[in-house]
Design goal:
The protein is 38% helix and 11% strand. It is an alpha+beta fold and 198 residues long. The strands form 2 sheets. A two-stranded antiparallel ribbon has the order 1-2. The protein binds heme C.
Length: 198
């Protein structure tokens, strides 16, 4: 009869598997709460939605050796400062539209999505919108009718018309402005922002 050693006992390994699964399950829960506390809006890296009332600068941070957003002076979106609730409502409208229209079928947001069209993380700061003075109108015009207002950012590809209303376009612009204020450790790399005055 083969004598079995302690480490080859079936019972030991069954208990071991159960303990490892249980501990890892706990670790997963702890990490989930930890991640949520880092990524929710209103933290150091992810500003509150009311940041759309301010100018977002994007400059090189010498100490960190990467680009970083700087929340600047008052610069209300569409000319009217919003309350915290109104800002959240508008950004949420944009987020829901982006989800409903499945923009990440072509684009990436914070690096997630598809690689057919440009990453939208810093799209608000794209020099292709000309200047601060005309950016909001150009963005809305483009989103509502991309084929007529194509910016052709050198790709030669065109964005199709997605039937976006003006209200939805404003929400998207608010969402993109808020997202550009997120400190993404310099992602996307090599992005050069538009020059903003004052
Ligand atoms: C079928 C693919 C496709 C889908 C879906 C799509 N786009 Fe685009 N988008 C493009 C392409 C291609 C470009 C580049 C257009 C150009 O160069 O003229 C673009 C450009 C853009 C730009 C300008 C990017 C920049 O860097 O300034 C924005 C903003 C944008 N799209 C937003 C959206 C939003 C918001 C949605 C969803 C509502 C969306 N797109 C859905 C293909 C798509």
């Amino acid at each position: 009869m083969a004598s079995s050693t302690w480490w080859s006992s079936e019972d030991l390994w069954r208990k071991f598997a159960i303990w490892v699964t249980a501990i890892m399950f706990l670790v997963l829960i702890i990490l989930t709460f930890d991640s949520v506390s880092e990524i929710k809006s209103g933290t150091d890296r992810v500003p509150p939605y009311s940041v759309i009332n301010q100018r977002i600068d994007y400059t090189f941070d010498e100490t960190r050796n990467r680009m970083a957003p700087i929340i600047g002076s008052e610069a209300p979106l569409f000319g009217a400062a919003l309350t915290t609730e109104q800002a959240e409502e508008l950004v949420t409208k944009g987020k829901l539209t982006i989800q409903a229209k499945n923009c990440i079928n072509c684009h990436t947001l914070l690096g997630n999505g598809s690689y057919y069209a440009p990453d939208l993380t810093k799209a608000w700061l794209d020099p292709a919108w000309g200047s601060e003075a005309i950016r909001e109108q150009l963005m809305i015009g483009f989103l509502m009718n991309p084929s007529a207002n194509a910016r052709t950012f050198g790709s030669g590809r065109k964005m199709p018309n997605l039937g976006i209303t003006e209200e939805e376009a404003k929400g998207i612009v608010a969402f993109l402005k808020w997202m550009s204020a997120i400190d993404t450790n310099g992602f996307p790399h090599n992005f050069q922002p538009m020059k903003q005055g004052g």
